[in-house]
Prior knowledge:
It is a single chain. The chain is mainly α. The chain has one domain. Helix content is 27%, strand content 6%. The chain has helices at residues 50-64, 71-81; strands spanning 36-38, 92-94. A two-stranded antiparallel sheet has the order 1-2.
Amino acid sequence: LVEAGLGVAVLPKLATPAAGHPIIHTIRLTEPEVSRTIGIVRRRGATLSPHASQFLKMLLEAWRSPSRISEPDKLRSRSAQASSNPASVGPRRKR
């Protein structure tokens, strides 16, 4: 719709056109800071291939790394750990 001249769109960076698009001009939004919740999706009851299993393991280790978590998220995470299952996989925040 944007390319047809019928509006504007707010998109994640991954979905924006490459620089130099002949019709669409992209403006990076920096304020206010925007975050979104992302998660891992897999087919229920299916066995993952060895490569997919390794990739999932790598993702979970990276997301659980203390250096990936902001200070407010650390505080929320600590209080939630007492009542949550440590093996559960839930959405993580990406900044």
